[in-house]
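Deliverable D4.2, example record:
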Amino acid sequence: MERIGLRAAPRLSLEALKEALRGLRLPETKVYLITDWQDRREKARYALLLHGKKDLLVPDAFGPAFPGGEEALAEAIRLLEAGGARKFYEAVVAPGELTALLSLPSEELLKRVQTVANPADPALYRRAA
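Output generated by the structure prediction step:
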């Protein structure tokens, strides 16, 4: 799994994602939005895990918890959809667990995220733009 971007750096992480996705088609890729809040989306931070031909992890750099993070998340979702991604999931973990989860080895991280993930409507994340 390739880890790209930086925690709490929405624009830089978005640019790293754009670079990593260059030329990729994503129709079979599963997009996991890993967040620390479900009932308080206005405070949430989001990490992205893409599982497919190329596995990518963007740490918690997106979402309203960071200045410009909500807009960067909306742009990332549009970018993924434009690349063909259609399978979106949300995995909610406790706020204190997010950093530890993202530090796990790739296989264990993927297993844990898949265990708690539920299908998600990407429109939830496109609102900011």
